[in-house]
């Protein structure tokens, strides 16, 4: 007996709660309708985006982002 063996049931239940009767086996339970990430976003990526002017602010709570940078002299 394995808890994760129930994952397919949980997933189908979640998709049906999102999309109702439109979530069918034929359309993969609506999985393709879920939003997808266009790229990987992490702390370093966000700081690079801020440096490029693509992000104008960043709230950080609970850790020091600079401590995770390999090149701390960049900022």
From TrEMBL:
For this UniProt record, the keywords arranged alphabetically read as follows:
4Fe-4S, Iron, Iron-sulfur, Metal-binding, Oxidoreductase
User: Which compartments does it reside in?
Assistant: Cell envelope
Kindly list the organism's lineage. Bacteria, Pseudomonadati, Pseudomonadota, Gammaproteobacteria, Enterobacterales
Q: Does the keyword Cytoplasm apply?
A: no
Lineage, top-rank taxon, reads Bacteria
In the record, the note on similarity to other proteins reads: Belongs to the prokaryotic molybdopterin-containing oxidoreductase family.
Q: Which GO terms describe its biological process?
A: anaerobic respiration
What GO molecular function terms would the record report?
4 iron, 4 sulfur cluster binding; electron transfer activity; formate dehydrogenase (cytochrome) activity; molybdenum ion binding
| Residues spanning the signal sequence | none
Point out the coiled-coil segments of this chain: none
Q: Does the keyword Metal-binding apply?
A: yes
* Record-given protein name: Formate dehydrogenase, nitrate-inducible, major subunit
Write down the required cofactor(s).
[4Fe-4S] cluster
Q: Look up the EC number in the record and give it.
A: 1.2.2.1
Q: What is its main location?
A: other
User: One GO CC annotation, please?
Assistant: cell envelope
């Amino acid at each position: 007996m394995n808890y994760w063996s129930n994952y397919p049931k949980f997933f189908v239940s979640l998709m049906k709660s999102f999309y109702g009767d439109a979530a069918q086996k034929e359309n993969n339970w609506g999985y393709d309708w879920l939003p997808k990430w266009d790229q990987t976003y992490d702390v370093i990526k966000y700081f690079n985006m801020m440096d490029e002017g693509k992000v104008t602010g960043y709230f950080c709570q609970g850790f020091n982002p600079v401590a995770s940078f390999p090149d701390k002299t960049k900022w």
